[in-house]
């Protein structure tokens, strides 16, 4: 499958500070890629470089087969971008604003009405198309922002925090819209809301301190062997005994006989070890690895690229 975005050895420095350090990845048609990272990790710098608003110090960016640095206008024509704060002219109606955006995209007069109608329909804006944007709810304003991003039918859509500040119903509506758009476009979803990524994305990438520290499909993530287990013991074993045991890297007590433990052992090794201790193992349940658990493991503290953090994505 051909790549809609190809990023090779992308680096951005601000003086001596390296905000993005030699990252590479690709986006294919049908991908909804969740791009995650803590504050200051390099997400915004990466998105600004992908959208052509920030020049990289080193590296290459290709959008729909066109080199962004060599031919920026042609490359950007294949890109739709919704920044965290949508660039809306709130004194315009929805229809006026989209007509204006269509002219900026050099859409011909004969096609302009049908193109705007299509974006309005796809984003569920039919009932508000004649209303002033400033009078719309935050959820509808986000929809208008997405409509302008898809107006010219770009192969690639970048959405930066598209549901920030929305209520739960609005969030569900925007997530549904993103999944629908993902059927015909390649989408990069830049967010810090982990449930959002698990709800709509088929791929996940995590950036930390400028380094790409995790890349996999959601299915790989969900099948990843957890390092956490819930155990129930018949004997009364105090948490200090468990916490001081080399088999566990962390222990959380639920009640007198139930614990959540972290370990580097496999399930088979750990269960056999507990039986050997004669603690009376009554219940042993591996906890499914979650995106939150992986995110915390890879971004807590001063973590760089290591053997455990490199891409797990299969070709």
Spell out the blueprint of helices and strands.
Elements: E1 3-14, E2 17-28, E3 32-36, H1 43-50, E4 58-63, E5 66-67, H2 72-76, E6 79-82, H3 94-104, H4 109-122, H5 138-150, E7 156-160, H6 168-181, E8 186-190, H7 194-200, E9 203-208, E10 211-217, H8 218-223, E11 228-233, H9 239-243, E12 250-253, E13 258-262, H10 267-276, E14 281-286, H11 291-299
Parallel strand pairs: 3-8, 3-9, 6-7, 7-8
Antiparallel strand pairs: 1-2, 1-4, 4-5, 9-10, 11-13, 11-14, 12-13
How far apart are the termini? 11 Å
Tell me the name of the CATH class of the largest domain.
Alpha Beta
Question: What is the averaged pLDDT score?
Answer: 87
pLDDT below 50 for ≥5 consecutive residues: which ranges? 302-315
Structural class: alpha/beta
Count of helix runs? 11
What is the beta-strand fraction? 25-35%
Radius of gyration: 24 Å
- Taken in chain order, the helices and strands follow as EEEHEEHEHHHEHEHEEHEHEEHEH
């Amino acid at each position: 499958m051909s790549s809609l975005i190809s990023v090779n050895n992308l680096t951005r420095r601000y003086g001596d500070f390296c905000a993005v350090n030699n990252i590479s990845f690709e986006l294919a048609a049908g991908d909804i890629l969740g791009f995650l990272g803590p504050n200051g990790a390099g997400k915004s710098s990466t998105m600004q470089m992908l959208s052509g608003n920030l020049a990289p110090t080193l590296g290459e960016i290709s959008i729909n087969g066109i080199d962004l640095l060599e031919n920026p206008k042609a490359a950007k024509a294949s890109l739709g971008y919704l920044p965290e704060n949508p660039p809306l002219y709130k004194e315009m109606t929805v229809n006026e604003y989209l007509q204006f955006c269509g002219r900026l995209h050099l859409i011909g007069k004969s096609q302009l009405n049908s193109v705007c109608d299509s974006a309005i329909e796809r984003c569920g804006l039919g009932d508000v198309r004649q209303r002033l944007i400033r009078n719309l709810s935050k959820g509808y304003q986000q929809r208008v922002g997405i409509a302008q991003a898809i107006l010219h039918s770009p192969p690639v859509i970048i959405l930066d925090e598209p549901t920030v500040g929305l209520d739960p119903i609005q969030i569900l509506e925007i997530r549904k819209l993103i999944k629908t758009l993902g059927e015909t476009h390649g989408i990069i979803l830049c967010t810090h809301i982990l449930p959002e990524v698990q709800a709509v994305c088929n791929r996940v990438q995590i950036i930390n301190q400028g380094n790409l520290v995790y890349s996999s499909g959601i299915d790989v993530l969900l099948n990843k062997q957890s390092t956490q287990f819930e155990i129930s013991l018949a004997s009364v074993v105090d948490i200090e005994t468990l916490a001081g045991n080399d088999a566990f890297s962390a222990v959380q007590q639920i009640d007198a006989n139930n614990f959540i433990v972290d370990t580097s052992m496999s399930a088979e090794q750990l269960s056999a070890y507990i039986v050997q201790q004669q603690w009376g193992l009554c219940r042993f349940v591996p906890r499914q690895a979650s995106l939150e658990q992986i995110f915390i493991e890879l971004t807590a503290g001063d973590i760089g690229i290591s053997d455990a953090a490199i891409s797990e994505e299969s070709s």
